[in-house]
Amino acid sequence: METAALVAPVTALEFLQDVFLLTGEGPVLEVYILKPRPKACASLSVLQHSRIHGIRPRRQAAVPAHSSCGKHKHELSSTTEPSFYDQVVFGGKAVRLVRLHVDGGHAWLEILGPLLQLQDWALDVRWLSGDKHSLLCVATAHNSALLLDLDTGTVLAQCSCLEGCLLYSALLLVHESWADTVLVGGTVFNQLVLWRPQGGEEGSDPEYKAPVERRLLGHSGVIFSISYLREKGWLASASDDRSVRVWGVGVLGGPGGKYGDSNPTCLRVLYGHQARVFSVHLSPGRVFSAGEDGACLVWDWAGGEKVVRTLKGHQAGGVRALAVSDGTSDDERWVATGGADGGVRLWRVKESGERKKMIEEAVTEKLTDLKFPGQGIPKVVCIDGKQDENVNWSKSRFVVCTDQGIVYQYSNKQWDIVWPGAPEFQSYCVMDTVSTNVKDSTAKVHLCAVGNLSGSIQVFPISHPQSGILLTGGSGKIHTLLWQEGQESVFLLASGAEGLVYRWCIEIKLNENSILALSVNPLPSFLLPPCAKRWLTAAVRLHSRSQEALWVCGDRRGSLLLFQEGSKHLEKQGDDVDVDEGLVTGTEQAKHEGGGSDGDEKSSIMEQRESKQVHNLKLQPLSCLFGVHGKQGVTSVCENQGLLYSTGRDGCVRIFRVQPTPPETCKENRKYTPGRTVENKGQLQLEVLRVQRACKGMEWLERVLFLEPEIPEEEEKVVRKGCENHEKTEKPNLTENLEVTEKEQEEESFRGEVGNAESQGKEARFAIIGFHAVHFVVWDPVRQERLLAILCGGGHRSWSLWPSHKGVWPGYGALVFIKQGAVLASQPPGEEPSWADKAGRPVGWGLREGLHGRGIGCVCRLGRIGGTRNDIQTTGNMTESGKREVEREEGLWEIVVTGGEDTTLTVLAIQPISGRIKVLSVITDHISSVRTVIAVKCPEEEDDNQPQSLSALLVSAGGRAQMQCYRLLISWDGHRLVPSCQVIQVASHRLDEQWERRRNRHKMVKMDPETRYMSVALVDKLTDRVLLALACSDGAVRLFSVSEVQHQIDLLWETFYHQRCVLSVATCSLEDGKGNRYKLLFSAATDGKIAVWHLTDTSSSISSDAPAPPIPCISIPAHQSGVNSLAVWAGKLGQQEGSCLVTVASGGDDGQLTVSIIKVQFPEDGKMSEHPISLQTNLQPPGQLQLYLQSQFHIPLAHAAPLTTLNLLSPDLVVSTSSDQRVCLWRVCSTGINHRGTLCSHVADAAGLAVWEGDLRCGMTEEEKGGKKGKMSFESKQELVVSRGKESRTELETEGKSAEVETGRRFNKEKETADEAMSREPVEAVSKTGDPLSKTSDEKSGEIAGECRNERDTDNVGRTENEVDTETGLKAGKSRRQREKTGWVLVCGQGFQLLRVTINLWSEEI
After folding, report:
1. In Å, what is the CA distance from 363 to each residue of 307, 309, 474, 809?
2. Which of 73, 315, 900, 1001 has its CA 20 to 30 Å from the CA of residue 1038?
3. Ranges of Basic and acidic residues compositional bias (predicted)?
């Protein structure tokens, strides 16, 4: 087996001269270069099966000067320094020396010595600086220290402490020699102990135990991390009690090994973390701590116990590693954090000197009062020119309207009156502003609109209010005013009385006197559906190449409405001809008046035109999603990349699109449309794709902010291709529409322009703006964290956020709002925000995106996707076959979905050839952990021949008896050369929601509110629905029907046969000789029994209202305790007709692997054969499908822990995994079970497993293979080769040893020894009758293997015709060509690991 991709908790971080960042993830050491832009540059697996817990670079002064490497281009501290850097990497009981080479723009890692295995866990390792040899001081877990020679791998000296307790952390303070070393240990008894390994003359005695010189008491939990600052004489400790303590200990270590002060004192006790503190680091002006709460806190030492900054960027699970650089000349430091989610984040932090600017990003408490001096009370505040991207915060201006109708402007720290108002605008007003260009000019003008109770609307430029005009929006109250930008003009929407929304198109021109003049063209009004709160709250205009523009609006009732321009959608009253003529005349008059009329004359003309036309022309909505956002209303609607996003006060963001309406739906919609509408062949409708909820308690949402990518795609291409010639790449246009031809129909043209999610609509990464309790919050739904939080007092107030222009949000901002009659700002207007630098922004740099912060409980594969051959670039020096191979593999991505304990579903794209992992989408609809997930694809979509699009129906289930169903659309992004994903929410279901709707509830067993869905299996795929069987923790097996067309999930029946928790379900399809199909369901519970159900009649009678649940056909005892996983497949029974064999592989809590072979007799056969084994319980009546247990085999110790999951790789190969971190491959046939190989996985707590077969390729002949020995780039890569022949044996070939590795050996010798030593492991399988199936490792295992091969040959899997001898190679006169078949194994738990399994099929050539 070979590792293709790995995501594991990051447990080690270390900076190298502020130029490189070294990270440890599992056994893999990865190097990131920080300048000029952070990116990955090298990676190598160094510790085999151990997890890296520490990286210690060697000082450059100690590196030998005879290096032949040249200079590099990264501008290190000195040009005379060598271009390689040695570091020791340790973790568990393993230690290894690794060298980083730097040559020009390239960097690579090299393993220098063997893997050294210690007798105890290594907690800290330090280089001895005074010795020219490679000597290390190592602190071990049982309070001991040893001196290790890396060159020879021998222990030169060892000393233990007199207090021989267990340590959770250790810190070595070394100088030039072993005698100067001081060890600080954090004990299991919540103490810090200081002692010196070489304690004077007695230290030469091997039996000598050093006494404890200093003891620090105060913590109430174990100590996880220790840091020492020599300049100050401070020692910091991080503990399980959620605190960080700073001690004044004086000088420790150095020449002579000083112990510091005789009476050390505790200087500070820092409480700020919400969970355990894992790491601590001291710097001259700051204390850095990171913990299980996922936060890195920056404490100001001079300011007392105060957090000056909070760095958060990881999922749940906490920060497992922390590193702080030494600092640069500008007094800045790099801070890196590694999370349990596998993510790595990077920040720039000021050390000192700018305390006022170091504002905590999580909660901003300091507010600036703008000292509003005007008349009246401020009611509405807007940022002047809020959509201008070039205006920075220091030059921003605010516009405020008071209850007296007076408009003020704040600029340069002073208030000025812009518009004095009028009597009719007192006591009530609404206001909105917009920026637009002057026609035929590059100048920008900011417009302001103010409405009142009588329907009057004053529109004026803020810079020239005397050029304003007065509009009339009916005779009633103006509820809202909304501006929308057009291509050459702006649109004003005024929501008036009786559900009418008045609209105007406004242009700004320069008249003959170079004075601003407004040209107003009225547009037909929108008529909102009847409801109690009948006014508009949000609107967006969709740009289209067609003449009929679209408007998507949201109202106060929570509905989403779709309007379309054009007279054929108008509701006309009176004479149609007069109305049309009036519209044309009014338009021409407006164009004529744009020349030199003053504002008053325009106002009177506008009033006459509106009274004649606007009340007579009304646009009806084409589509209405009534109350989709609840009764509190829609707060915003916006468009991005062909998709629409709406927010409301129901705590939800809805992603939707405009779709052509099917003919059947068009007829139904016309029945409910008020007024008379003209039939349109391009009828459109709104379709909600999915719903995204904010965090718990955040119900009042205001809008969404689109986030920029943290690392641009051109940088990702540089990393992936290993070159630097793609720095200038065009960014995709966010509003770009698809090109369409003139021959396409109108509806097809619109589908390409507005948002066909399958081809053009791509969901963007966004953040959510809203109010959470008393805070204004910017929430990231993917990382589940706050990006910005400002204490404002909660909702029901006017506010404006900078920067608020359309496009991407840079990750920082400032808020202006009204509170208790005052205008407040989160930042002083004259100063830039302190986190404007992107490296210092709250979210930092994402060097590697994290996945699930907690364990991954389930996984499923959707399929494979790739680009066209033209998308993949190859180098010129490749051969044609090499180019074809790179084109084929480089563009292939495996799409998988994972569900975790953090209640999220993550859609991932994995590129096996490079190990790249990309998060496509994160779904957060579950309220509890996700336990099981399944993907259903159409038969025509199940072919993996590199498609450019995938579509699958995804069903997930888990805690709280909750099911979610989605349609996933995966497409290939030809611009970025990566897949993209669109999630469409289909339906959801919870048992407690259906309970009150049931009849005869008193006769049923009430559903436990804590019921969990444990497993799901596909029963059948029908034309209009999908049938699924679910295992439930309340002892029930339930059958559900999922209809994508009706967006509904229905419970068909349930049975409580097991009477205990059902852990797993699986299905199998059978077909007899006459073409009749049968469905079998297998369910297993905590009692160790497997029940088999015949579901053919049940699945065919789902149309009935209450189908009766079936009874099991057979019950098979398989395990002593719970059965966690099932794998079922069917095979033929030789020459016998009317029957077949079904093989059931099961794994349980007892660590046992059981294979049960069931004979199925079809009802057409009149006679039933005799069956000697009768241990099963047959419950099926005669005359129907008959099932009998034919044989059963066991592997009692298949794993050293409960077998959590197993899956079928091919018809005879089963993969199993367990919490013992072993992945085993088994050969299963009708005569027994044969073990084929084992790999120690790097994933802890394995709970999910997905396997699939890859391509079948022809390789080299055996002579060619013998003459050319392959090379492996990673020592920890292990390859499992299964050679198939009639009498062949299977051998497990690995690099490195699976047991102990001798010290002092080179890497090549380790590989050769391991290849010879690792052979097939014999496993004794016991049959149900008690006869051993494997008597000896040579005789019986060979018989079983031969019988298994004969059985396999009858199934047409891997046929061969000649004997194969895997030890000697070819037989005389024969030449065998190797055909490789690749299998993939994805193991999930605390992270995931993708393994490549290579299966060799040998064919002979004369």
Report:
1. 11, 10, 45, 19
2. 900
3. 589-610, 1262-1323, 1336-1362
Which SS3 state, helix, strand or coil, does residue 1398 take?
strand
Number of H helices, E strands in the chain: 11, 95
* Helix residue ranges, H only, 552-657: 576-593, 599-613
1366 pLDDT higher than 60:
no
In the prediction, which pLDDT does 828 show? Answer: 78
Lowest mean pLDDT among 790-799, 860-869, 1084-1093, 1158-1167: 1158-1167
Q: Scanning the structure block, which residue is given the tokens 């000192």? A: 352
The number of residues making up the chain comes to 1406
Region of residue 1275 (left: phi > 0; alpha: psi -120 to 50; beta: else): alpha
Burial 466-490 (b: 16+ CB within 10 A, else e): ebbbbbbbbeebbbbbbbbbeeebb
DSSP string, 579-605: HHHHHHHHHHHHHHHTTT--HHHHHHH
Give me the mean pLDDT over the 508-521 stretch: 83
Q: How far is CA 1222 from the centre of its chain?
A: 26
Residue 618 has pLDDT above 90, yes or no: no
Q: Specify the pLDDT at position 994.
A: 62
- Work out whether strand 407-411 and strand 414-419 pair parallel, antiparallel, or are unpaired: antiparallel
Nearest-CA neighbor of 127 among 58, 182, 184? Answer: 58
Angle, CA of 1116, 1118 and 1124, to the nearest 5°: 115
- pLDDT tens figures, 320-377: 999 999 876 557 789 999 999 899 999 888 766 444 344 334 334 578 888 898 888 8
Q: Which pLDDT score, from 0 to 100, does residue 1271 have?
A: 31
Of 350, 355, 298, 351, give the one whose Cα is nearest residue 322.
Answer: 298
CA angle 55, 58, 61 (to 5 degrees): 165
> Could you report the per-residue pLDDT of 970-1020, keeping only the tens digit for each?
988 877 788 888 899 999 998 876 655 666 655 555 556 678 999 999 999
Rounded distance between C-alpha atoms, residue 740 and residue 1018, angstroms: 40
Alpha-carbon distances, residue 679 vs 335, 549, 561, 673 (angstroms): 63, 17, 18, 12
Q: Are 1383 and 1254 in contact (CB under 8 A)?
A: yes
888-to-733, 885, 941 alpha-carbon distances in Å: 29, 5, 19
3-state secondary structure of 526: strand
* Phi–psi pair at 199, nearest 5 degrees: -90, 65
**Dihedral sign from CA coordinates of 1299, 1303, 1308, 1309:** negative
Question: How much is the pTM?
Answer: 0.80
User: From residue 188, how far is each of 164, 219, 852, 893 by CA, in Å?
Assistant: 11, 11, 30, 47
User: In terms of DSSP H, where are the helices of 816-970?
Assistant: 880-890
CA dist 604 and 1397 (Å) reads 81
Position of tokens 């004990």?
187
- Phi, psi of 1284, deg, nearest 5: -105, 125
**Which of the given ranges, 251-255, 841-845, 1043-1047, has the highest pLDDT on average?**
1043-1047
